Amino acid sequence: MREGRGLFGHLLPYLYAAAFIVVVWQLVVTLTKPHVSLLPPPYLVAQGFYELVASGKLFVHAGVSLGRVFSAWFLSMLIAVPLGLAMGRSRLIERLADPLIELLRPISPLAWIPLAILWFGIGESGKIFIVFIGTFFPTLLATVAGVKGIEPHLIHAGQVFGCKSQFSLFRRIVLPAALPSIITGLRISFGTGWAAIIAAELVAARSGLGYLIANGMEILRADQVLVGMIAIGILGVAFDAGLRYVGRRLTWEGAA
User: Fold this and answer.
1) What is the mean pLDDT of the chain?
2) pTM higher than the cut 0.85
3) Where in the chain are the domains?
4) Predicted confidence (pLDDT) at residue 5 exceeds the cutoff of 70
């Protein structure tokens, strides 16, 4: 019972925010009376949302986008976390890798879209590449910051109490201590990857939520565009909440 009330308590602010948006939206429509191709009223968007859900199209497009994001996000995690751990512990590795990273990091993932199309075409590889660019750097920087933020006395204590090898020190001290920062980086990188895949699908896709929005724009269906945007927001909030929950559990288990 308490868990139910806790879940409702977490959802309540989002419900308030959604209600506020709908009220303002309806007021704008009532006062300005725009054409439905520009700004449809909330009930038409709700109807379009229901139709896309009932037909299964919304689930198909959302599943395609999520599959692309998770593939690139997991790949970037496999590379960024070990590299970040190494850079955080080794000044030599950091000096070698940092200039390249700082040169590439400011370049927006969107700027890579033309090259991704030239290199990979409009298939899945190009979209995964764009999301990888968007997710790699936040994860890497958070991991490096987490390692550098470890108190030196923890490292010393680990060496004194049996961590004789670097692998043992990493497994028992460095990784658990840096884990909260790593989880934060993964949360941030998922958000940037989610934004990147939508942008990539807007210009080079035949499926996905970005394609759903672009197609709605081409056929002057603003309700379809808004349904895609709503789905992006809901899924983004849901997965961020899931990552926060996993982060709390991992932190508690590590502390225990």
Assistant:
1) 83
2) no
3) 1-33, 37-255
4) no
Length of the chain: 256
Give the tens place of pLDDT for each residue, 157-197.
Answer: 666 666 666 666 676 777 777 888 888 898 899 888 888 88
Please give, one letter per residue, the 3-state secondary structure of the chain: CHHHHHHHHHHHHHHHHHHHHHHHHHHHHHHHCCCCCCCCCHHHHHHHHHHHHHHCHHHHHHHHHHHHHHHHHHHHHHHHHHHHHHHHHCHHHHHHHHHHHHHHCCCCHHHHHHHHHHHHCCCHHHHHHHHHHHHHHHHHHHHHHHHHCCCHHHHHHHHHCCCCCHHHHHHHHHHHHHHHHHHHHHHHHHHHHHHHHHHHHHHCCCCCHHHHHHHHHHCCCHHHHHHHHHHHHHHHHHHHHHHHHHHHHHHHHHHC
Other CB atoms within 10 A of residue 149 CB? 12
Identify the CATH number of the domain defined by range 37-255: 1.10.3720.10
Residue 176 in tokens: 């658990």
